[in-house]
Design goal:
The complex is a heterodimer of chains A (365) and B (292). Chain A is of the alpha+beta class and 365 residues long. Chain A is 26% helix and 34% strand. Chain B is mainly α. Chain B has two domains: 12-71, no CATH class; 82-287, Orthogonal Bundle (MetI-like fold). The chains are: A alpha+beta (365), B mainly alpha (292).
Chain lengths: 365, 292
Amino acid sequence: MAAVTIKDVWKYYGKTLAVKELNLEIKKNEFMCLLGPSGCGKSTTLRMLAGLEFISSGDIHFDDVRVNDLPPRERDIAMVFENYALYPHKTVFENLANPLKLRKMSRSEIVERVRRAAEMLEISELLNRKPGELSGGQKQRTAIGRAIVREPKVFLFDEPIAHLDAKLRSHMRGELKHLQRRLETTTVYVTHDQLEGMSMADRIAVMHEGVLQQLGTPSEIYNHPANEFVAGFVGEPPMNFLDVRLERSNEGLSVVHPAFQLTLTDAQRHLLENGNAESDTRIGIRPDNLLIESGDGGSLDIAGSIFVTEPLGGDMLIEANLDAETRVMVKTKIREMGGPGDPCRIGFDIEKLHVFNKETGVAYF
Amino acid sequence: MASREIVRYRSPTRGAVQAVTVIFLIVFLIWTVLPLLIMLVSSFKELLDAFQLPAVGDWGDVGVMFDFKPTGRHYVELFTEKHFATYLRNSLIASFGSAAVSVSLGAMAAYAISRAQFRGKRDLLFWIISTRMAPVVAVMVPLYVIFRSSGLVGTLPGLILAYTTFNLPFAIWILKGFFDNVPYAIEEAAQCDGCNRWQAFRLILPLVAPGIGAFIVLCVLFGWNDFLFASIIGSGGAKTLPVATAELVQPVKIQWGSIMAAGVVTTVPMMFLGLLIRRYLVAGLTMGAVRE
């Protein structure tokens, strides 16, 4: 039995469709990430789980209880909001104690639980301060503290670390993941940052325009994107997409582009034949899966020229022109690549190639 | 954020403007404070002393105004023979009572209007404030008839009700602005914590405290200063200070000493109230207006 079951859920705001026929099962103690750009319906979905939005049609079950008509306080959930939503007139201690007070716990138990949560989040020294006197990171910890003191059935996170600076954010990713494993509580985490989803979640549900695009582990999402949207949204820097034609040749099936020609593997050929692929298709390749050499004397197949180089410290990002209209992004460890206009050679790691239907965006592989 | 300080350079014009400002403020201060001072001093004078005035233009003789033997007779008289203790009590009950009723009903209504979306919300809001647009005299006659037939004329509850009809729309409008500025997420967090709607409302009430404080002052002042309602609806059983003071003006023997003392009794409590929550008042009246 899944901890949370979302069945055929639709959500309209007036006549605007926000979530379309969503089906999702979240397992007990799983860390599920709802990932997508803004306006994709992920926050709406979370708020429907919390009971802050009505469900237009469909059902949501927690274990086997239908919660559609239950108010938030009867759902045994705890939510962390994007802007923290702390009570500004109450101290950190009172903020954390509020959910416990409402459950009529004894004073000693409240103190003990708040102390434990504060210790876990390293905010013990801040208990007498008010939110106005806290930094962003401390506020965020307080908001998380208010969620964990109660030991609810489900945690709901709505972009909890989106407003922190980059360094703190990467620190909190680790902390949150650790916390979730330690507390062993079913978690639904909404974010638009694919890095957060990839690094923290057990499974990711990618959403776009109210529709679930793909559900899978981070590795499945990254290595086998179901469609062009997922392929382009997940991964940084984003995947390169090129329009090509499929052509038969003596060696088998090839993708043909004005600037190059690649022969596909037998396995790839079978997948395309089984999928009745049109000859006009689109290929995708991640910057990590392109190879590059400087100069024009190398062994790689495609001659190009460098447009710009972006050193990132360890790695280097290179935008290279294959021909007048085609530019690709390559990620490499090579340090000396020359400057704009210098020649280079580029090759594909053919095993890592993705092919999409040009009309529907659905991936053949 | 850029500095908001306005750069100022010294110039003859600026100097002149400054001098004019100071002179204006001095004149203004004398204009407002002097009558109050004379009232205060006269309330401690016997009738004969009160009319010891220097000749017009004779500034050297101003001292005679302060040359008297102070007496508390008028105050004693006021509170023993003229029942001002009752009138003071009536004034306090009517104004604070109306403030309490208006603020509790107003806060709940304002919260509901601020949070809920429903058809005709704008019309409702306009209707609420339009009741405040009518001049008091226009509603006086119908109100009197209604109060008369409900047996509310001459009673304190009647007076409180009358003030509330005018204060409540005001309360709803002021407090709605304050509730609008409380982020909805705070209430959603409260609901997730386990609050029901009523508990969430109580939880955010301290966040609108400046608004409530400001409004209570305005409300109390309205009731305290009112003469028309008090004289018509409160007449008899619920006489308040302004009405009682006016009655001291009799055709034959005007009791100046008592009138001055009554003026002091009426003015002083409100002055203290103003001083006490001056900061609230300023914060309250401006904070609701500006979104930060």
